[in-house]
Design a protein that fits this description.
Layout: H1 2-6, E1 8-12, E2 21-25, E3 32-41, E4 45-51, E5 54-59, E6 62-65, H2 72-78, E7 91-96, E8 100-106, E9 111-115, E10 119-133, H3 136-144, E11 149-151, H4 152-174, H5 185-200, E12 205-216, H6 219-234, H7 237-253, H8 258-286, E13 288-290, E14 297-299, E15 316-318, E16 325-327, E17 344-346, E18 353-355
Parallel strand pairs: 1-3
Antiparallel strand pairs: 2-7, 2-11, 3-6, 4-5, 4-7, 8-10, 9-10, 10-12, 13-14, 15-16, 17-18
Helix pairs in contact: 4-5, 7-8
Amino acid sequence: MGFFKKQLINVIDWQDTNSQDMVYRFPCEGNEIKNGAQLTVRASQVAIFVNEGIITDIFNEGRYQLTTANLPVMTKLLSWKYDFNSPFKAEVYFVNTRQFTNLKWGTSNPIMKRDTEFGMVRIRAFGNYSIKINDAAIFLKEIFGTLPSYSTKDIQDHIKTIVVSSFSDFIAETKMPILDIATMYDEIGKGTAEKVREHLNQIGLTTTSVIVENISLPEEVEKAIDKRSSMAAIGDLNAYAKFQAADSIKDAANNPSGTAGVGIGLGAGIGFGKMMGEVMNQSTNEAKIICPNCGKENASSAKFCAECGQLLHPTKVKCIKCGKEIPSGTKFCPECGAAQVLRDKECPKCHAKIPENAKFCPNCGETLK
């Protein structure tokens, strides 16, 4: 009788000591669960009873005294006739339903992305994600099986592959520009999590978050972006070239290298002076405007010719005859030759002044030839 008493289990529970354990099988092999045994299911746990490979009963958190009232399915399967007075055997699995956080993911190989500005670009990314078991029975059937224990290390590589694949799909579908990716990490993480959730629901898991820590570009693309930023910061390239030339001349003049250094500095000064002169000449040539009256060269910002006083930027008017746009003040239209200043003439009847092209006298109505 002492031997049989030792084989009877009175207390069934699991104290989770490892933060990565997802499922734990209670060690009751060869032991029988006693009638009235105590089952303790702690917070964020689920206890599953399995008899001959069939899930019979599932217990959520709480404390239970195992009787036929607690185990109706198992009682029906075993057809106990003695009011559950006899011990019984069953496998008991504890499933951890809390969140498993800070699991790492990353692209082992670059992902190809089509960008409107840079063409085909290879990107890499990494971050972390969180998962939890949302259906203990499905997870036990599809993933865990009958192992003694199961942890996040056993499934992490599989989920990492799903996260990377979902990330690639989301990036391709959204078609966001490369330059805008750095401002949309949160949106990318949420979109990736939605896609990951669709895959994990099939095995009883779900993801609570996917966090993108960094998305990196190839070195040549980063250099191109840096150059574009530098050009935007410089603004006026002519002014920048003048400043660089003047700064270089100052450095050459302050070079304390003895007689040889003086010669080198002098040569450098002459070279930089020539370069600065070319820059100035180029800037000056680009800023010239020719006077239409006397042919004198003037600065593009001048309003009147410094030689003859001609208006350099005349306003446009339309020819009174053909309608072509001509500079204001033009006496004859270069297109049709019509005079732009009308001379007055007299009416043969009332001698009133009338325009040259008038057909009737505005004073007496006489028909004019």
